[in-house]
């Protein structure tokens, strides 16, 4: 009985205390809570938002190769590379569809995952304005709103909506950027993108202040991956996905179990706020 109570309590507090029980009820008849927990305890689980391409897709592959079970979201139809991963890891990868800017879809995703309990939630989705050399005075209102909503508002909506799918001592992280640092901004450039990531950082600081009271054991992470060669980062990026993804996942794994918010680069070093 004591073990069962510990398992349930580890899943979350308050409204999420039933997470482990919900997972049990979705299993075939005859599966006990202890059997379910024991069979899954050695496989950490992540809900990864934004895995259609680039960093998110590569993160999915890296996590699966390390023994994680991953629920990965894609915006539209499943990309071929994601289908290949699904064929290689049929029991470890679940693919969900989500447009991060659609609040109804976020709510529907939470509903579909009501019987799941994750060790980590990581939001990777993001974008930039078409002309990144535009100053803040030159960007169109439409482009400004799109970048700010996609990079700052929508990630926090996902976090707020899906937080109770994460264990009370789990990790919630979002992909930030070194360009979100106010203190390190000495050269300027990419003003709209910088502003959106700085806003994201501030919103996570506010979220962390609330979490410190309600979930003191939860780890929170803002991750600055570096300038990577992707569709978003451009071909001029200093680093390839192959050389950076192991470092990125290392940071996530090492942050687990360290409560509170940290803003870290891909080597696990603090980034100036």
From TrEMBL:
<protein>
    <submittedName>
        <fullName>FabG</fullName>
    </submittedName>
</protein>
<dbReference type="Pfam" id="PF13561">
    <property type="entry name" value="adh_short_C2"/>
</dbReference>
<dbReference type="InterPro" id="IPR002347">
    <property type="entry name" value="SDR_fam"/>
</dbReference>
<dbReference type="InterPro" id="IPR052184">
    <property type="entry name" value="SDR_enzymes"/>
</dbReference>
<dbReference type="GO" id="GO:0016616">
    <property type="term" value="F:oxidoreductase activity, acting on the CH-OH group of donors, NAD or NADP as acceptor"/>
</dbReference>
<dbReference type="InterPro" id="IPR036291">
    <property type="entry name" value="NAD(P)-bd_dom_sf"/>
</dbReference>
